[in-house]
Amino acid sequence: MNLILNFLATIGRGVLGACRIIGAVVLFALEGVSHILRPPFYPRLVGRAFVEIAYFSLPVVALTAVFTGMVLALQSHSGFSRFGAESAIANVVVLSITRELGPVLAGLMVAGRIGAAFAAEIGTMRVTDQIDALTTLSTNPMKYLVAPRLLAGTVAMPLLVVIADILGVMGGWLVGTAQLGFTSASYLTSTLNFLQPMDVISGLVKAAVFGFVITLMGCYSGYTSRGGAQGVGAATTTAVVSSSILILALDYVLTAMFFGL
Amino acid sequence: MSSTPKIRLRGLSKRFGAKTVLDGVDLDVAAGHGLVILGGSGSGKSVTIKCILGLIQPDAGSIEIDGRDILAMPRREREALNDRIGMLFQNGALFDSLPVWENVCFKLLAQKRITRARARDKAAEVLAQVGLAASVGDLSPSELSGGMQKRVGLARAIAAEPEIIFFDEPTTGLDPIMGAVIDGLIVDCVKRLGATAVSITHDMASARRIGDSAAMIHKGRIVWTGPASTLGHSGNAMVDQFANGSREGPITMELRR
Ligand SMILES: Nc1ncnc2c1ncn2[C@@H]1O[C@H](COP(=O)(O)OP(=O)(O)OP(=O)(O)O)[C@@H](O)[C@H]1O
Ligand SMILES: [Mg+2]
User: Fold this and answer.
1) Residues of chain B with C-beta less than 8 angstroms from the C-beta of A133
2) What is the value of pTM for the model shown?
3) Cβ contact A130–B107 (<8 Å)
4) Is B103 a pocket residue for ligand 1 (Cβ < 6 Å)?
5) Among A121, A173, B27, B166, which one has the highest count of C-beta atoms within 10 angstroms of its own C-beta?
6) Whose CA is closest to A119, among A24, A40, A214?
């Protein structure tokens, strides 16, 4: 009997703990967003975060996109050639990239880079009293540290994904023309023929959401970190793991919203 | 000296988990007065100051500044109050993403009391007051020695000419001469600005120089207040033991042998 009660209590505690964290993250996000909308604004900090997210993630996102496009073309060729549907290769590549793989893979890459970097930077500021110092220096730390990063992340990710989309298609085109016997023109026309604006737009909306989630989790885990270097290390891990999982989960939700039913 | 104290603490209490750090701190600081807070390591000196700054929410008690309870204040007023307070953190807490000059003028820039173009000159001016060359302004905090960081932290705390200044161990980690210089600077600043200064220090010579009065905190309470000049021969056994650094006395360190 006691065993069962203990077991239930453990589960209950876990659920309550999870609820508390979710609530805290949501409140944190709302406060962050409210600071994006109210002055004073920090355009320099938005710019700096934007450069860090968009510009410095560009190489890794670009490589991911090109290789993903190439692999997609190869795989769909080896699959479709069995029933003579090679002509669909270009469509498969462009749809998978724009709808799914562009935003998700770019999101995961950026989560690794930016989520970790923001959590480490803000976490270090927390444990060295720099966040407290901001308050004593007439500056709201949420407004100064969190809001610019949230804004930059939400704007930068769609731009990164536009580039990822283009490079992914290029990767497919490379393999298609060099290896699979497409002419350049036929590959590109079949790429564009079936592409709907919604395919691209849904991917960009996903990208914006992922950008927000990555920066949110990075900022939140850094901001709430405790206990020296070890705490900062834990915050970094939390940021990357939680934003990666959220990206995959939200990807499902958003796909269901755009294309479900 | 006006009759309402600049800062007035009543029954300030704070626990972290099971550990009671502050257990009913009562303290008055008169306007334009210099108070030093003494106490063993971990006795809650920094926590007391952080409560007054609004960085830590106390569990119980009241904190009044100019006779107004700051714990009951709306956030906007509270922020406005922080504009008039300066703080030197124990570990400096300099922003390592910004050059020294921007650190020093951070508050002035945040309050738009100065343009970025003018901030460098202003920073050089304040740095000179703490004995640092203007060229230090272009360095990053991580390129400074510990003592230099302390002085930059001090420069940052006084740059906006606050009414109330908190110094958390301003001279720890400085050589004795620089320590005395900084003490002089604090006294100077306080006189020039007419500011109220609350300092935490472990250095008795420094305490006598910068304090008009002193308060000793032990086991979460203020156990003694008196003139700083009497430290060491105050008549309170605890204070004298602390001031003279003797092992024998009413304060026993909880050491395991
Ligand atoms: N944020 C916190 N969370 C948990 N415990 C804390 C926190 N801040 C301080 N403490 C605890 O409160 C106690 C008092 O800390 P405080 O920093 O005020 O000491 P202090 O008097 O300034 O000591 P020192 O002279 O060494 O600086 C310590 O035991 C510390 O462990
Ligand atoms: Mg301390």
Assistant:
1) 87, 89, 93-95
2) 0.90
3) no
4) no
5) B166
6) A214
Q: Show the tokens assigned to B2.
A: 């006006």
Residue B142 in tokens: 């991580």
CATH 3.40.50.300 fits B7-86+163-244, yes or no: yes
**Residue with CA nearest ligand 1 atom 2:** B16
Coil, strand, or helix at residue A20? helix
* DSSP H or E run through B217: strand B213-218
Q: What ipTM score was computed for the predicted complex, to two decimals?
A: 0.89
Q: pLDDT tens, position by position, for chain B (257 residues)?
A: 457 888 999 999 999 989 999 999 999 999 888 999 998 888 999 999 999 999 999 999 999 999 889 998 898 888 889 899 999 998 889 999 999 999 999 999 998 888 988 999 999 999 998 889 999 999 999 999 888 898 899 899 999 999 999 999 988 878 888 888 888 888 887 888 888 999 999 888 889 888 899 999 998 999 999 898 888 888 888 888 888 887 877 777 665 55
Which residue puts its alpha carbon closest to atom 17 of ligand 1? Answer: B46
A138/chain B closest Cα distance in angstroms: 6
User: How many Cβ atoms are within 10 Å of A71's Cβ, its own excluded?
Assistant: 15
